[in-house]
Amino acid sequence: MAYFISQSLFFIIPLLIVAIAGMFSEKSGTVNIALEGLMVIGAFCGILFINKMQGIGAFANSPQLLLIFAIILAGMGGALFASLLGFLAINMKADQTIGGTALNLLAGSLAIFLAKQSQENHAVQITYDKEVFRLNSDFLKNIFPNINYVFFDMAYLTTYIGLLILIIATIVIYKTRFGSRLSACGEHPEAVQSVGVNVYHYRWYGVLISGFLGGLGGLVYALPISVSFEGTVAGYGFLALAVLIFGQWKPLRILFAAIFFGVFKTLSVTFFGIGWINYLIIEFPNVPFGMIFRMLPYIATMVVLALFSKKSRAPKASGKPFLGAAR
Amino acid sequence: MNDMMTKLKSKWLRFKETDGFHTLMGSLFAIGVGLLIGIIIIILVNPSESGEGILRLIKGFMNHPRGAWIGLGQLLYRITPLIFTGLAVAFAFKTGLFNIGASGQYTVGLFAASMVGILGDSLGGFQWIVAVFAGMAAGFIWGAVPGIFKAFFNVHEVITSIMFNYIGMYLVNGLLNSSFLRTRVVDGTTNRTLVVDQAARTSYGPFNAIFPNSGLDISFLIAVAVAVILFLVLNKTVFGRELKSVGMNRDAAKYAGVNEKRSLILSMAIAGMIAGLGGALFILAPSTRNLGNAYAIENVILPAGFNGIPVALLANSNPLGVILSTLFIGHITLGGASMQSVGFVSEIVDIIIGVILYFSAFALIMTQYLGKFKDYVAKRKKDKSLPPSTEEVKEGKQ
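^ inputs. structure came back:
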């Protein structure tokens, strides 16, 4: 069970962060279909930095500091890349779907191109040592060994960063003037404009925050699951988009959606290690359990969506360019 | 003679005012910027080989070792699946839906066709046509699902499409790994499906004579025919107008007497059917070049569907434009492959395509701005020569 939870966090936390990234952009009125690309760019920047630093032996004694720098760099890379979307969607008032698709294409090819150019043997893979980043702590080990295993031994700092982002995002969206103005820009920009607030500025904030969190989420996703990065995040940005819609553009619902999806996704890769399921597999050899469990996260999501989507709460003006003063 | 010239000129002038012209100009502008950035990258990466690299990029299909003509055949062969997925995305776009699920539809179509192609020996001469229809039917069903979820449960088609990409891929792989199919249709050593029966293959048609050994078969002609049919359906039929009206305003279409749920589902289903047809024709191709006739059982979503999105967008979702944009993307992709032998990574081409798509997004806006600017200049000239009319004065006051 502890192993299961610890594994599921590797799915849940990046989905949570990236879906919240999408939320900031869409709440301010810009549809962000480029989440996949933002993740790729963020993961690329962060992991290349880690690769180079580990290569020259910097930060050898303080891996967590290295991770924090890499995370900041990943976020900044994402924000910089997202500014391409911001310029296109907000200033040029262009089609956001086309822009987002273009960025996804660019991100993947740019990451591979730069990886090949920046490494001696023209390799696509950027390798890194992730073991140093594991918290590996003995905190609470004697009293609650399971909690220690999940949250302190096997965990990464990124888990806490994800939860912190959730808390801050919830407070910002619901409890601050900035948050309500941001949301208003995605609902009724003309009204925002009429009280003298600059809609363009707020939409830019939304896109840049989205880029920062998207890039950061890319690194959080890529780091613990592998030992090398190959210029792709395997469709996770699109899944985060689905989680965002599933979560109805609300932080806490996004958390629920990410957990829901993440748990089923973890089940689909660990089911054969779980006692009672193993018993079923032996008992009914003709039932294709592998296929069922792999399809389950997606089917379960569709069932839940079918039941609860009658009233969708998408930001009303999301995807529509703001053309200026009320007409 | 003079008559014809004036006629042509007036036609040209009228064409210049159409949206189609603006789109074309916008696309050409975007392509120019994309190529320029690509050339700059090539020069920066390796100045000494850059001349050869740029030449190879521009030459595209003409780099083929057996000459430009065979290269052209190979280009058409390579782009055919992309035309289908591009059309699947473009058709849905025209009816106001974002079909991001072409990959899933393509995969199930490919699977259904290959099952008929391997197991349907008893069908004899009908085997290939049944296989094609099986692929279309599978794609139709897979496309209909996001439509149904949107029409009845108000679930956005993007999320359903993404989910059904995964469900389709896992379903197909799971079925192929089942005890029944594994022994009959899978080559255990390569973990790929078997190549379909000879009777299930599509025909080379005239192409083996025209482009010897290029691999091109009649699928390309079918793709062009589908593009023409979709163009006509969208622009010349009541049915097409209905589908488009639902895309523009669902409630208004409903009010005007269109069965909006049915239209929505049909739009997606038809899009899925086209992607499924693409998958079917891909797996049934008579040439085994590029391991075309086998499906590798890997837990990876086929990129063919996603690649259809930029193709459709670059063409502004015009079915006939899709053929042109696919030709262009196929051309520079072949150029990129050829560039590798002089030391340039082929991803430069993907960067170029990304840049082109990025600029095409606001090239449309730019041409509109340019149009407005011209109007403004013309108006200024007019204003100087003539006193403002009363209407203009009124407008100015508002």
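Strands of chain A lie at 126-127, 228-229. The first helix of chain A runs from residue 2 to 27.
thumbs up if we can close this ticket
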